[in-house]
Write a structure and sequence with these properties.
This protein is mainly alpha-helical. It is built from 3 helices and 2 strands, in the order H-H-E-E-H. The two termini are 27 Å apart.
Length: 102
């Protein structure tokens, strides 16, 4: 992962603490099963018994209902406005099923 981040131009990659599992599986016919990114996040939460607050930050929208998503734009990446939105979601009470999708 660090190599991928460096290849995108990141000068000082942020230390990685953990990552979500890759739930895509190859079938006998050679095709891969489609898995929502939100399913991978949910598996990570369940596997670790995580009960804290979190925000899904991604340029795609394939997350589960109720997962707090702040969607980025692939071309622009993380902006100050998007970072502020993430911080707000982590600080403020969020009702189940409420997210901040653009």
């Amino acid at each position: 992962m660090r190599e991928k981040l460096a290849a995108t131009g990141m000068r000082q990659p942020v230390p990685l603490r953990d990552r979500t599992p890759d739930l895509h599986r190859r079938t006998e016919s050679g095709l891969y099963t489609a898995v929502l990114r939100g399913e991978e996040v949910q598996r990570w939460i369940e596997d670790r018994g995580f009960t804290g607050r979190y925000v899904c930050l991604d340029d795609e929208d394939d997350f589960l209902s109720g997962q707090p998503l702040v969607q980025t734009n692939f071309a622009e990446g993380l902006t100050a406005e998007i970072a502020d939105r993430c911080i707000r979601l982590l600080r403020e009470p969020v009702e189940v099923g409420n997210d901040d999708r653009d």
